[in-house]
Every structure is written in structure tokens, then in C-alpha cells.
Specification:
By secondary structure, the protein is α/β, with parallel strands linked by helices. It is built from nine helices and 13 strands.
């Protein structure tokens, strides 16, 4: 990692050493917000941002994300978590308390197409993607030069369906060694096994074109051109064992017309893909996403 990027991360940690985020989902009922607010107040925490949503006030599920500033949070963290765990039982809460100074460690998987990887690296260098990009794994070598120029470890691990189990064993070992919090598939053109996915629930973000399910499989842009599509889109989602059907985080589109040939469709598609993936990754890093069934609530 370049020294100026390390400095950016260290400055972020220093600035946010007392900043916390609390994400909660539970059956909706009166008193949830009041109880959480009183708990934070009891620890001298000041709420900076709060967002909430209910699927139905009568018998639905309630979701809330609170960002707060708390003096001496590092010293208080363990006790706060123990106390909140007791409180959460009363409301049957699923919850997660994160500390902003713990910058998440990220692994990026990529194949030959580099546009999404390069977008993430640019956002990272500029300080707009606050993460520790710990390593990049690829089944090809095209990304090696760009990655190593930033002093990020690059691992070339050739992969195909015949050696998938062996490859994933090596990849999982690397993820454990680097203590990875988030895996980004930045146009990684390999199907992950159930073993790999189950080891990383809601920790793998993928990007793909939004022609699905109309143009499944190879050469989607060519077939879209033949059909005269008017919209090019992209979808970013969490990976599940149902191929490309995991909880959707972000989507976007760009309008095209009859003047667009296959090459221009691909160019427009790449532009949409990289921006959609970058937004999805940022929201995950900022603890803005709660998964509910096969949907996401993004605050």
C-alpha cells in the first residue's frame, strides 16, 4: 500500500475513533427507538444520524441504523455490547454494533476485464472508498501491473471448473490469512461453489449487466444489439448459491438508441457497471445495508 493511502486511512481512524454504528432488525412494536436512544444516552453517546423503516407497523419487521459519537468508545465497546445483548433479547433483535475506526479489510477478485477494478482503485486512492484493500486475486495476469503499482499483493491463481475445489481452498486460505471482511467480484468470471459462498454469507458483492434474465450466458451485448435494446443497465448484489439471484444492493441504467453498435453498448455498459459496483461497495463499508429475506434495506 502506498504511504499516502496509509496516511488517509490513519487520519480516518483518528477522526472516527469514537464513532460507532448500530444496525438493528426486529419485530415491529412500540418502544424500540426509545429503548435504543436511552441505551446510547446512558453511555453519553450523541446520535449523529438515524434512519428507520418498517415493513408494516402491525406485525412487520422494523429496521434502524444509528450512527453515533461516544466518548472513549474503544474502552467502552465490550461493556456496551454485553449490555445491549441483554436489552436486545426483550425485542428479539438481530443487531450489529460496529466501530468506524475498524476499517474493513477487502479482497478484490478480477479476471480480464479491469474497468470495475480500476474504478475501485481510483476511488480508494482518492480517499472516497475507505477500506484496506489487502489483496487482489485473479485467474489472469492482466491486472497485475495496475495492482502492484499500488503495492497491493497480487495473487495469480488460474481457475476453471475442473480445478475449482482446489482453487477455492487456496483462495479461502488467503482470505483467512489476510482476515478479510468483504470480497468484491469486480468482473470475476468464475462461478463460486456453495462451500465458498456459505463461508462468506452477505460478504461477497458481485456486479453484472442487467440484461438478466433476457440474455443469460455468453455474448449478451451482441444478442441485446440484435434485439434492439433501448436500455443498458447493471446490478450489484450479494452472492448466494442461487446464481445471480442474491439480494440486490444497487442498480442503474443508461438509455441507448438505434445508433449504438455492439462496441458502444459495451462501453456504456462498463461505465454503468463500475459506478453501480462502487456505490454498492461504499454502502457496505459504511454499514448501510441490512439483508431481509432476499432483499436489502439500504439506509
Amino acid at each position: 500500500m502506498k504511504s499516502y493511502i496509509k496516511n488517509q486511512i490513519n487520519e480516518f481512524k483518528e477522526k472516527n475513533q469514537n464513532r460507532g454504528r448500530l444496525l438493528v432488525s426486529c419485530p415491529d412494536q412500540p418502544g424500540i427507538v426509545s429503548t435504543i436512544s436511552k441505551f446510547l444516552y446512558s453511555h453519553q453517546a450523541n446520535i449523529i444520524e438515524s434512519s428507520q423503516y418498517s415493513t408494516n407497523p402491525e406485525g412487520g419487521t422494523f429496521f434502524i441504523r444509528i450512527e453515533f459519537e461516544c466518548p472513549n468508545l474503544k474502552e467502552k465497546a465490550t461493556e456496551m455490547e454485553l449490555q445491549f445483548a441483554e436489552l436486545a433479547k426483550e425485542f428479539k433483535m438481530e443487531w450489529n454494533l460496529t466501530h468506524v475506526y475498524n476499517v474493513k479489510k477487502v479482497a478484490i477478485f478480477v479476471s480480464k476485464e479491469l474497468h470495475c477494478l480500476l474504478e475501485l482503485l481510483w476511488e480508494w486512492q482518492s480517499g472516497d472508498l475507505m477500506a484496506d484493500i489487502a489483496l487482489v486475486i485473479s485467474n489472469h495476469v492482466e491486472a497485475k501491473e495496475a495492482v502492484e503499482a499500488l503495492n497491493i499483493p497480487f495473487y495469480h491463481i488460474p481457475a476453471n471448473k475442473d480445478i475449482r475445489e482446489q482453487v477455492e481452498k487456496e483462495q479461502l486460505q488467503l482470505l483467512e490469512t489476510y482476515k478479510i471482511d468483504l470480497i468484491i467480484l469486480a468482473r470475476y468470471m468464475q462461478i463460486l461453489t456453495p462451500t465458498f459462498v456459505s463461508a462468506n454469507p452477505n460478504k461477497i458483492i458481485n456486479i453484472h449487466h442487467s440484461f438478466l434474465p433476457a440474455f443469460i450466458g455468453a455474448r449478451p451485448y451482441e444478442r441485446a444489439y440484435d434485439r434492439g435494446v433501448k436500455l443498458i443497465g447493471a446490478t450489484s448484489h450479494y452472492v448466494t448459491n442461487d446464481l445471480d439471484e442474491g439480494p440486490i444492493i444497487e442498480q442503474d441504467i443508461s438509455r441507448v438508441d438505434h445508433r449504438a453498435n455492439v462496441d458502444s453498448l459495451k462501453k456504456i455498459g462498463r461505465s454503468v457497471e463500475r459506478s453501480v459496483l462502487a456505490r454498492a461497495v461504499k454502502w457496505h463499508l459504511e454499514d448501510r445495508i441490512l439483508v431481509h429475506d432476499n432483499k436489502t434495506i439500504v439506509f
